[in-house]
């Protein structure tokens, strides 16, 4: 039973951190030991910190989050709304890095 509970905690880490968010701005943040991830909208800062530390074996010094509202766009003359997403800027301890191009 305890093994099953531990398994669900590991699975939760993958449910919290969805994907790296790679743009020009986030690439510039990597110079300051920061990595940006798309995370679950229900994820809290302590959950994000625990998930990143467990998945990538690094020490996290700070987590900043932001909720990005989906834009309204048009496609073939009809309006649609992109889905909302939550981003987390994770600051790492000095000397540590995460290579987001390799995947989890």
UniProtKB/TrEMBL annotation:
<dbReference type="InterPro" id="IPR012678">
    <property type="entry name" value="Ribosomal_uL23/eL15/eS24_sf"/>
</dbReference>
<keyword id="KW-0694">RNA-binding</keyword>
<keyword id="KW-0689">Ribosomal protein</keyword>
<dbReference type="InterPro" id="IPR012677">
    <property type="entry name" value="Nucleotide-bd_a/b_plait_sf"/>
</dbReference>
<protein>
    <recommendedName>
        <fullName>Large ribosomal subunit protein uL23</fullName>
    </recommendedName>
</protein>
<dbReference type="GO" id="GO:0006412">
    <property type="term" value="P:translation"/>
</dbReference>
<comment type="subunit">
    <text>Part of the 50S ribosomal subunit. Contacts protein L29, and trigger factor when it is bound to the ribosome.</text>
</comment>
<keyword id="KW-0699">rRNA-binding</keyword>
<dbReference type="InterPro" id="IPR001014">
    <property type="entry name" value="Ribosomal_uL23_CS"/>
</dbReference>
<keyword id="KW-0687">Ribonucleoprotein</keyword>
<dbReference type="InterPro" id="IPR013025">
    <property type="entry name" value="Ribosomal_uL23-like"/>
</dbReference>
<dbReference type="GO" id="GO:0005840">
    <property type="term" value="C:ribosome"/>
</dbReference>
<comment type="similarity">
    <text>Belongs to the universal ribosomal protein uL23 family.</text>
</comment>
<dbReference type="GO" id="GO:1990904">
    <property type="term" value="C:ribonucleoprotein complex"/>
</dbReference>
<comment type="function">
    <text>One of the early assembly proteins it binds 23S rRNA. One of the proteins that surrounds the polypeptide exit tunnel on the outside of the ribosome. Forms the main docking site for trigger factor binding to the ribosome.</text>
</comment>
<dbReference type="GO" id="GO:0019843">
    <property type="term" value="F:rRNA binding"/>
</dbReference>
<dbReference type="Pfam" id="PF00276">
    <property type="entry name" value="Ribosomal_L23"/>
</dbReference>
<dbReference type="GO" id="GO:0003735">
    <property type="term" value="F:structural constituent of ribosome"/>
</dbReference>
């Amino acid at each position: 039973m305890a093994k099953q509970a531990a398994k669900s905690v590991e699975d939760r880490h993958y449910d919290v951190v969805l994907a790296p968010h790679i743009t020009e701005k986030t690439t510039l943040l990597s110079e300051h030991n920061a990595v940006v991830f798309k995370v679950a909208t229900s994820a809290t800062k302590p959950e994000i910190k625990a998930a990143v530390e467990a998945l990538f074996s690094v020490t996290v010094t700070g987590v900043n989050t932001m909720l990005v509202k989906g834009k309204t766009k048009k496609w073939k003359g009809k309006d649609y709304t992109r889905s909302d997403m939550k981003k987390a800027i994770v600051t790492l301890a000095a000397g540590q890095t995460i290579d987001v191009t390799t995947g989890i």
